[in-house]
TrEMBL record:
Na(+) binds at residues 71, 74. It comes from Dysgonomonas mossii DSM 22836. Pfam families: CRCB. Belongs to the fluoride channel Fluc/FEX (TC 1.A.43) family. Keywords: Cell inner membrane, Cell membrane, Ion channel, Ion transport, Membrane, Metal-binding, Sodium, Transmembrane, Transmembrane helix, Transport. The keyword Transcription does not apply. This is Fluoride-specific ion channel FluC. The gene is fluC. InterPro entries: FluC (IPR003691). GO terms for cellular component: plasma membrane.
Length: 118
């Protein structure tokens, strides 16, 4: 268990640092009213989790790359992967509810947190 915690922590640290650097780079070269950096990071994270899901056989390496790195880089990749898992398991309604609830409740939670701290 300690080994897995360390692997997730290491991957998460690298993913978080890479997210910060990628975001800073994109914002510097392309100031844009749309959150382009976040959008690109989320799409790249989704691509990475898709690659790692099929290419990484070792459980420890999965902890490092999928849970750690992708989790630190973006949690959106995990959300997308879980949604696709529902869809692939013929649970389309659950996938739809998960997407809708995550977006609506997530945005509402951000609004509520901002409202409460004004």
């Amino acid at each position: 268990m300690i080994k897995q915690i360390l692997l997730v922590g290491l991957g998460g640290a690298v993913g978080s640092i890479l997210r910060f650097l990628t975001s800073a780079f994109i914002v510097r070269i392309e100031p844009f009213p749309f959150p382009l950096a976040t959008f690109l990071i989320n799409i790249l994270g989704c691509f990475c989790i898709g690659l790692f899901a099929n290419l990484v056989p070792s459980n420890n390496l999965r902890m490092l790359l999928i849970t750690g790195f992708c989790g630190g880089f973006t949690t959106f990749s995990t959300f997308a992967s879980e949604t696709l898992t529902f869809a692939n398991n013929n649970q389309s309604i659950l996938a739809f509810v998960y997407v809708l609830a995550s977006c609506v409740i997530g945005i509402s939670a951000v609004w509520l947190g901002m409202y409460l701290t004004k």
